[in-house]
Amino acid sequence: MTRDEKINTLAKVLSASKQFTPQDMKRIEEKTNEQLDYIFSPLDQCIYLEACAGSGKTEVLGLKAAYEICKWGSGKSGIAVLTFTNEATATIANRVTAFYGRLLPSNHFIGTFSSFVHGHIAQRFGYKFYATDSDKPDKSFRVIDSDTKPYNNQWLENYKLEFPFPKTKIYASQLNYKMSCKEWCVGQGESSKRIVDLYNEKSCQQNIADIRERKNAPYLFQFDYLEKQIKDCKHKFWNDGFATFEDVNLIACRCLCNKAIRGYVAKKFPVILVDECQDLSANELKILSLLIRAGSVVHYIGDLHQAIYSFKDAYPEQFKTHTDTFGFKTMCLSENFRSTQKIVELSRKLGSISYPITGSLDGRCDGADCCYLEYKDEKETITAFANILSKFNIPVKNAVVLVRSNNYKKELSNGFSDDYKVHPIINAIQLWQQNEPGAQQRALSLLGLQLQKWLGFHGHSNNYYYSEEVCSNSVLWRLLLRDILADFCSDSSMVEMDKLTYSSWYSKNKSKIINIINCHLRAVGKTLSDITIKSPKGTARQKIDIVNAKEESQLRIETIHAVKGVTYDAVLLLSTPNGHGKTGYWENWLNPTDEAGRIGYVASTRPRYLLCWGVRELSSEQRKRLEGIGFTRFNN
């Protein structure tokens, strides 16, 4: 079809389900040829749509889904559109609804990958393989946060790993199987440790040697025995109806190994569209592999140059192996609607991207779109960046300072530490009283986090820990959190914190906290069970840290991972002083084959008009390296 034929066909199909306006037509006519090519791609072939940063892939995905749903002929099967956060789900759902024009039929699904796996695979079929109590009417798994502490959850002692690790207790909720390396680990994210490394630690080996000598049993506690204990511990956890968020993928894989189950799911969802595909873990790719083998056609939309979640077991190499194995066709979106051409060209070099990418925005920084600042002191660099913003009339609220780690962020942030999770209720009350949007959003998130721990559900931090297990939709959840905080702040004894210790505040207000929360939870059919509210260990006698409101003129400081998918007018990407923090050092950002390079690429593709790198004072050779890829030195 020609371009005009595609546009007219789209308009004809979509207008059958909604009143088609001139604005709708203009929105379709704005689509590039590459975008239209993907929208008309076949549903009988697996496709990887490689979408460069700022390419409008969410809009294209929404239009593709709406177009295919309009043409869908079956009421018993449907299309699943999957992403990774509730916020992204809401964005995609809004785009699909805008093009489709009415509520989606229930046979189709738009949601997070985890909610799809939970609702349609693990919770539906998992009991067939793990639940031991066949008489229990509710055979679903209770999802437990992997960082749940036994301090207030004594029941976890029933699922303790029986192995003589010195001075360390490991629980089933902490054990995580990484499919990419086929190894058990303890903990999640970047703090995760391989179980084999813990076993080989000098203190552990010495403890084992002492036990062997004392019992005259030289073959006790071999590594294969530890692996067996891990599996037994984990299976007991699952068989009793518990699972962590990460466990659910393993349970789903076990379900889909059954031919009848994977055939049922593939028949129900013969087409699956996955956004942000570079974030797929090895376990998630395994789930999709099983569904593809059962007949599902999968389309991936994303950018492997933005694969920065190795700590969740997501690697571009395993994604490439997966798409090669199943013969995926690659299509491309190569027009960047976010940034100026200079920023696009520099980021293309950072990512070692071979195909040309077109930037759409005109510059407004007198040719200094990509610059670098040298520093002796990082905070002086932030001040210099603020002066650059002023020079080019870029509002501070539209700019951000990006750093690699939360620790570096805290080091640079003024005033109270940004990690409020030790005392979430106290800090949520303080933040809510500031009556400032950013602070109140943080307050909602902290309260949501605390309720998640008390109620035992699993939500995501980017949507205030909302979960369908508690509330029918995310809007009602936010309103519930808002009303609880408003009631907290209307009580004078709860807002009075100056000169109090944490222990005295909790003693005075714990009953009020429970009563207020239960009053609002009853509206959604929930209540808090017996919980203990007291000062966390080591903080009882400390005076409450008072959270000070940030000045409006103060630049935001965020981690790179926190702004993935976000756009700013200007970005200062601040390097660590040296290469000790590998992925946070500028020279490592120049390596496109390493995750450090991809982290640098993600950060450098966030700004519209101004990209500035802040680096420790350079040698002449280092300056040549930066200037060789398109940076100019900014002299304030």
What does the model show?
The structure is a single chain. The protein is an alpha/beta fold and 636 residues long. Helices cover 43% and strands 14% of the residues. The chain contains 23 helices and 19 strands. A 6-stranded parallel sheet has the order 3-2-9-10-1-11, with helices on both faces. It has a 6-stranded parallel sheet with strand order 16-15-17-18-14-19. Strand 2, helix 5 and strand 3 (109-112) form a beta-alpha-beta unit. It is globular. The protein starts with a helix and ends with a strand.
Low-confidence stretches: none
Secondary structural class: alpha/beta
Record the strand order, biggest sheet.
Answer: 3-2-9-10-1-11
Find the count of extended strands (DSSP E, 2+ residues): 19
What do the pLDDT scores average to? 91
Strand content: 5-15%
The largest pleated sheet is described as: 6 strands, parallel
Calculate the terminal CA-CA distance, rounded to whole Å. Answer: 54 Å
| Rg, Å, rounded | 26 Å
Gross geometry: globular
Q: If helices are DSSP runs of H or I spanning 4 or more residues, what is the number of helices?
A: 23
